Amino acid sequence: MLSQVYRCGFQSFNQQLLPWVQSTGLSRSHRVQPSAIRHVRSWSNIPFITVPLSRAHGKSFAHRSELRHAKRIVVKLGSAVVTRGDECGLALGRLASIVEQVSVLQNQGREMMLVTSGAVAFGKQRLRHEILLSQSVRQALHSGQNQLKEMAIPVLEARACAAAGQSGLMALYEAMFTQYSICAAQILVTNLDFHDEQKRRNLNGTLHELLRMNIVPIVNTNDAVVPPAEPNSDLQGVNVISVKDNDSLAARLAVEMKTDLLIVLSDVEGLFDSPPGSDDAKLIDIFYPGDQQSVTFGTKSRVGMGGMEAKVKAALWALQGGTSVVIANGTHPKVSGHVITDIVEGKKVGTFFSEVKPAGPTVEQQGEMARSGGRALATLEPEQRAEIIHHLADLLTDQRDEILLANKKDLEEAEGRLAAPLLKRLSLSTSKLNSLAIGLRQIAASSQESVGRVLRRTRIANNLELEQVTVPIGVLLVIFESRPDCLPQVAALAIASGNGLLLKGGKEAAHSNRILHLLTQEALSIHGVKEAVQLVNTREEVEDLCRLDKLIDLIIPRGSSQLVRDIQKAAKGIPVMGHSEGICHMYVDSEASVDKITRLVRDSKCEYPAACNALETLLIHRDLLRTPLFDQIIDMLRVEQVKIHAGPKFASYLTFSPSEVKSLRTEYGDLEICIEVVDSVQEAIDHIHKYGSSHTDVIVTENEKTAEFFLQHVDSACVFWNASTRFSDGYRFGLGAEVGISTSRIHARGPVGLEGLLTTKWLLRGQDHVVSDFSEHGSLKYLHENLPIPQRNTN
C-alpha cells in the first residue's frame, strides 16, 4: 500500500513555524483548560474530553439538528480553501482557524479526520523560490555588470510540486495541532489502495488504530505518483468509486470508515440551483437524491481538480453509503472561523444532503408563499379583509370543542415539564376563546382605515401631486412560546394590515397551534388568500429563521426575556420589534391614597405574575415607612404569598430584613417583588431610568402636580397615574389585540396593534415632468402646497 505515516517529525521546520503559529493567536489560551474538562481519559499522556456520542452506522441523518450526535467526522479541505489567491502558498490564517475547530471537536470526544489539498501549492511555492534563486546565481556569474536579466519561470509539473510540498504541509499541520496537545498523522493513498483488498484492509486498520489513540489522521492523495483515474469505474455502486480527486477520496474514506458526517469545504456557500453569481441563483438548503437534474453546474473552482458537479456526485455516493454530507464555504472571512463547529451544531450552513424529504414545504418556500399571499391580501378591499377576520372570530366560537380538545392534549403532554406560570399561558378556555373573538371583531372594525390610508397630500407643481399612503411592512415572523391564543390575535392583525405572516410556535403548544392555523387558513380561503399565513412546523432552529433576511421584513418575538434577547442577537439584518425585559415599577408617593394602593399593588403583582407587564419593583416614599399604609401593603403581599426582596436602602431601615435583592434590575416573572425606599419623586424617576426597562411605570398619588411631573419625565413606553401596570396591553387599550409590546424608540412603541404593522410609501402623479424644468433657468416653480386629505367612506 502506498501509505506513509509521519508522526512527531520535522522538528526544525516546527521551530521555524512556532513563532508564526503563536502570533496568529493559537496560544495556550485557546486550548481546552483542565477546569473545563469533567471526564478525562488518557492515552500516552494525551488528555481529551469524552462525551456520550454513539450511533449505529448504516443510515444517514435525516435532519440537520441530528448532526450534533455525529461522532466520526471527515473534513475535506478543497484546494481553494487551503491555498492563497495567487495559488503559490497556503492561506495560513484559514488553516489555523480550521485546525482550531477540528481540535475543539476532537477534544469533545469526537473522532476527526482531515482530507486535505495543498501539497501542490506548497511545493509550487518552494520550487519557484529555488528556481529563482538558482537563476539569479547563474546570471550573476555570467553577467559582467552584475545586472540580472528578466527571468522566466518554467511551467512546474504538478507531481514534482506535490513531492516537494508534502513534507512541508504535514510539518505545518503538526505545528498547529501541537498547540492543542493533539497529535496528527499523515496517510498518502492512491486509487490502487482501495481496489486491492489487502491494501484496503491495511488502510482501514491503520486509520482505526490512529483514531483509537486519539490521533487525527490527515489523508491526501499521493499526487507525486498518482495514476490517472480508471475509465468507466466512477460512482457505480457503494463499493466502487474512482479516487481521482480529493472529493472522491473523502467520499470513499467516509464510507470505508463508516463515518457519520462528511464536511466538504470549498470556496462557495454550498450548492446553488444555478451557477453562483447569476441573478437568480439561490442557495439550496437541503439537497435530495434525484434533484441534480434541476441544477445547472458552473465551472470548477480556480484551483483543484474537481468542480461542484464532482462534489455533488461524491456527496451522493457517500450519502448512499450511510454518511451525511454538508458542502459549505471554508474561505469566507466572516464564517470560516466557525463554519465546521456551526455545521456540527446543526446550524443552517451550506447545503445539507438528505435522503428524507419533508412532508410539507421548506421554510424558504413558506416564506415565498407568505410574500405572494400577503401581496394578494393587501390588494383586497378593506371590507374583504374585515370579512376574513369576522369569519375567523366565528370559527373560534363555533369550533370551540375541537380547539379545547387539542389544547387538552398539549396540557397533558406538558404536565410535569412546564412550570405553573407557563402551564397557565398554555391553557385555553371558553372564556379565553370568547375574549379572543371579541378582540378579533375589534380588529376587523379598525381595519377599514388601515392599508391605503392617505396621510399627506402635497401639490409639488401644477399637475404634479404627491401622496404619502400606508402600506404593509411585508412578511412578519412571529415567534411565540406557550401562548396558543397569540396565533389568532397575530393572524388577525396581519390580515387587517395586509402583511404576510410566518408563525413559529413552541412545540409545547403544537396541537393547539395546528388547529388554530387550520381555522385561520379556512377563513383566508373565502377570498383566495389561504397562503398568506404560514405555520412553520419543520425542525427549523429559531437562529436559522432569523437569518432569512431576503424573506422576512420584521421579527416579533413573544415569550420570555431570554427568547427576546436570543432573537435580537441572532437576527442578521432583520429588525426585531419587542422588549427584552419587563421590569415594571410602581412609585407610592407620600400623598398616595390608602384606599387605592393595596388594590393597585395586588392587581399589578398578583393577577398574572408571569406577564411582562406585571409589577416587579415597588418604590416607597421614605415618609411612608412605619405607617399604617405601609403595613397594609406588607400584609397584603404576605397574604398573597409574595416573596419580598429588600433593596439596599430599604434593608438599612430594618433590623431584621427580608433577603436583600441581588440586583435591582430583575424581572421575576413570579410571586416575588423588590421593595426599595426613595426620598422624592425625582429619586424615583432616576431609579426607574437606571434600573428599569422602559416598559411600564406607575405613580400612585393624589397630588396632580406630582403626577403630571412623573408622567412627563419618566421615559418609558407606558406611564400611568393611579392605574395598574397590567393595563399595558393592546386589547385593554382598545387596539383589539397586540403583536407585542415594544420598548424601542423607532417605528412603534408600547402595545403594538394594527398601526404598528404598517409603513408608508410615496405616490407621485405627474404629466411629463422633469427636474430640469425647475432649475434656475427652467420654466416651472415649486409650489409645495398642502392639499386636503380625502375622507374614506367606512360605512
UniProtKB/TrEMBL annotation:
One of its GO terms (molecular function) is ATP binding. It holds the Pfam family Aldedh. Keywords: Amino-acid biosynthesis, ATP-binding, Kinase, Mitochondrion, Multifunctional enzyme, NADP, Nucleotide-binding, Oxidoreductase, Proline biosynthesis, Transferase. Pathway: Amino-acid biosynthesis; L-proline biosynthesis; L-glutamate 5-semialdehyde from L-glutamate: step 2/2; Amino-acid biosynthesis; L-proline biosynthesis; L-glutamate 5-semialdehyde from L-glutamate: step 1/2. The keyword Hydrolase does not apply. Its EC number is 2.7.2.11, 1.2.1.41. It comes from the Eukaryota. Residues 363-625 form the Aldehyde dehydrogenase domain. It catalyses: L-glutamate 5-semialdehyde + phosphate + NADP(+) = L-glutamyl 5-phosphate + NADPH + H(+); L-glutamate + ATP = L-glutamyl 5-phosphate + ADP. Residues 71-329 form the Aspartate/glutamate/uridylate kinase domain. It is found in: Mitochondrion matrix. One of its GO terms (biological process) is L-proline biosynthetic process. Gene3D superfamilies: Acetylglutamate kinase-like, Aldehyde Dehydrogenase, Chain A, domain 1, Aldehyde Dehydrogenase, Chain A, domain 2. InterPro entries: AceGlu_kinase-like_sf (IPR036393), Ald_DH/histidinol_DH (IPR016161), Ald_DH_C (IPR016163), Ald_DH_N (IPR016162), Aldehyde_DH_dom (IPR015590), Asp/Glu/Uridylate_kinase (IPR001048), G-glutamylP_reductase_CS (IPR020593), G5K_ProBA (IPR041744). GO terms for cellular component: mitochondrial matrix. Coiled coil: none annotated. Bifunctional enzyme that converts glutamate to glutamate 5-semialdehyde, an intermediate in the biosynthesis of proline, ornithine and arginine. Can form homodimers/multimers. In the C-terminal section; belongs to the gamma-glutamyl phosphate reductase family. In the N-terminal section; belongs to the glutamate 5-kinase family. NCBIfam families: P5CS (TIGR01092), PRK00197.1 (NF001221), proA (TIGR00407). This is Delta-1-pyrroline-5-carboxylate synthase. It comes from Erinaceus europaeus. The gene is ALDH18A1.
